[in-house]
Amino acid sequence: MKNKQRSGQGQQQSYNKSKPNASHHDKQTPNKHYTVNESSELLAFLLNTLTNIGRNSVKSMLARGQIFVNGRAETAYNFPLQPGHTVIVSKDKIEEEIPLIGLRIMYEDEDIIVVYKEAGLLSVASSKETELTAYRQITAHVREKNPINRIFVVHRLDRDTSGVMMFAKNEEVKLKLQDSWQDMVKERTYIALVEGKIKKPTGTITSWLKESSTLRMYSSPYANDGQLAITNYTTIQTNSYFSLLEVNLETGRKNQIRVHMQDLGHPVAGDKKYGAKTKTIGRMGLHAQVLAFEHPTKGEVMTFKTEIPKTFLHPFRATPTK
Fold it and tell me: Which residues are identified as catalytic?
């Protein structure tokens, strides 16, 4: 089937962070101001404070941007409140677009949403994380239309990896994508900036990946001991210090490229966890450039491609920083 190219030039959403303005209507339905006395998550604080409003109504107010913390609209249920914070409950429905930080929507329909994630942003929070994530932001985005809307994780990118990733918008689609991932995904291409001059212009790395007790992935020296991982690469550009590679995954294992590049003797630039010694671009040199897949309900093959980050080309114009 011929790939159907999608340009995905969605625009960054804008947002006015100013405090809710007083108006003639506000005098009839004044905003309520509350001072936070002890640490709490935002939803819990609202439920304890707005005792005359039902739980679903409070969630709807959050989704519509009617709750302000220190003058800024907040939509996350678990936003951490601290003593001294001021919470304003606006009686008016404020129809605002919620900003996307470190994200850009490339494509969206009733079943899936494809985004471009910048390096430095977590895909999904761990149990101990409360910071901003791609998942939290896209959840807030879909709840602008309906506060009960949800999104579902299909795959992830590491915090310091930029590029294309996809979420499902209902559980049925999520399960279909995850159960048939190897068949439905037609291409996953990464750009990797690695240390050193790679001698072979193309190559394939195959190993069995395992995870240590310290959550570090590694290649087992024994066949069939772990998950089979296959990585293909082609050299785009190289010098004495770095090589820029196009990397295609036949399997999608955790940290697969990072481990295989270390195995090759050319760790991903900036990836200290897996042997890198340079920090020339100030981030990890890994970018998910292409994601092509069969749409889970429409059947057509969709391809999303992004440009190589400009910082990945800098080491080929200057002496690297150790």
Answer: 158
